[in-house]
Structures are given as C-alpha cells and as structure tokens.
Write a structure and sequence with these properties.
The chain is an alpha/beta fold and 234 residues long. The protein has two domains: 5-55, no CATH class; 71-223, Mannitol-specific EII, Chain A (3-Layer(aba) Sandwich), CATH 3.40.930. Helices cover 44% and strands 15% of the residues. Strand 4 and strand 5 form a beta hairpin. Helix 1 (5-12) packs across helix 2, helix 3 (41-50) runs parallel beside helix 8 and helix 9 (195-202) runs antiparallel to helix 10 (207-223). The chain starts with a helix and ends in an 11-residue tail after the last helix. The model is unreliable at 62-66 and 230-234 (pLDDT under 50).
C-alpha cells in the first residue's frame, strides 16, 4: 500500500478532501491503517480504468523514466484473434485461456482459474463493449515479457459492465512484474481513448490495421498527438 491520499489527489487532479471522502464511502479502493488511508497501485489503476479516468503513468512508475512505449510489441506477442467463442463470461475466459497467443510457459488451467477469480472480485469490463481480464497477481504466471492478447468475441457477452453494454472486445494482459503490469495497462488505456482505434475495434478490423494504429499511438506518447486517418477520396 504505497500511495497516500496526497499522491492519489495529484494523480486524479482532485482535492485530498475528495479522495478521503471517496475512501470513506467505498467509492475508491482504499485500506485504512491507523486512521490513515493507503492505496494499492494495481487496485487504483484498475479502478481508474473502469471509471474512464486518465492517470499519470509517471506517478504509477514511481517517477522512474519509462522505456520506449511498446504496446504494439506486446500486442504482436499475444496476437489478435477473431471469432472467440463463448456465450457466458466463464465460457469466454476459458476460450481465452486456450488461445495460441497465451505465453507458452503458462499453465492454461491455472490461467483460467486466475481469470475467473479476478472476475469474481469485480468485473474487468471498462465500458464501450470492452473488457480487460487478467490475473490479479501478474507474478503467478511467470512470463518473461509483456504480452497483450486481443480477442474479438463471436457474440456479445454480459460482463456486468457499469454502462450495461455487453462485451465484444477483450484484452488479456500477461506481464512479468507489477511494474510492467501498470505500465502495460497505462499504455492500453491511453490507446483506448483514441477514437480511430475504437472504431477499428468496433468493426473488428484486420490485425494489420489495428497494429498500425497502435504503433502510431505508441509514437504519440513520445512525440505528440497522433494524426487522424485521411478520409478516402471520392
């Protein structure tokens, strides 16, 4: 529990009083120690993602410089998979755990149980028909490098999203450490704010188009805003 009320207030651009009130009300995940609230980085990042709040990657990395953004590389490792089967959340999670993009060293049955266990705590649906199922503790799976598996569901499935919209798109994260988990989910949430990427996901576009847009967004994290795609002539 390494974040204070002041840290969270800076992260979310709200007052410390607001953060304390949210903690008392149970609106935000918090832990009370000796009448002081402390916050877990992973829990807070997941909460921010589910609320559609933008967060500062620098604060979540403890102020250390980040390596060059590499969401596209992680997505290439995990792969983009169309037609993922399943009529229930459990069906979808089982299908995800069997996809070829899962790192080879990962025990598929263990992965399924971890994904199921994470969903039993709270839905990983972030709204807009997208969910980000993942193991709560990334260290358990013992992967060598970050990988992001993108799956397009064969049919929409109820994940219990706050906006009530069924899920059609899932991103499953595999990371070797909590720090890499935070960095990877920060990059993913940054990219999902892009309207063009959202459009590509909604129409379940070919993998090469999605990867091309993600590479542009990776570069934008360093060099500035990414340009909108050119309108077709005629």
């Amino acid at each position: 529990m390494d974040l204070s009320v002041r840290d969270v207030a800076r992260l979310l651009s709200v007052s410390e009083r607001t953060v304390s009130r949210w903690a008392r009300q149970g609106t935000i995940p918090a832990h009370s120690f000796h009448d002081q609230y402390r916050f877990n980085r992973v829990e807070l990042q997941e909460w921010a993602a589910s609320q559609g709040r933008r967060v500062s990657p620098k604060l979540f990395s403890g102020g250390a410089p980040e390596p060059p953004p590499a969401l596209a590389l992680a997505l290439e490792r995990g792969g983009i998979h169309h037609g993922v089967a399943g009529r229930t959340k459990a069906d979808v999670l089982r299908a995800l755990s069997r996809l070829p993009g899962v790192p080879g060293a990962v025990d598929r049955d263990l992965l399924y149980q971890l994904l199921l266990g994470r969903e039993s705590l709270a839905s990983t649906a972030i709204g807009g028909g997208i969910a980000v199922p993942h193991a709560r503790d990334p260290l358990v799976l013992q992967v060598e490098g970050p990988a992001v598996l993108l799956g397009f569901l064969r049919e929409p499935v109820d994940f219990g999203a706050l906006d009530g919209e069924p899920v059609r798109v899932v991103f499953t994260l595999f990371t070797p450490s909590i720090r890499e988990h935070l960095r990877t989910i920060s990059r993913l949430m940054f990219s999902l704010h892009d309207a063009e990427l959202r459009r590509l996901l909604q129409r379940q576009a070919p993998a090469e188009l999605i990867l091309a847009r993600v590479r542009q967004l990776d570069r934008a994290r360093v060099s500035g805003p990414v340009p909108a795609p050119a309108e077709p002539e005629g």
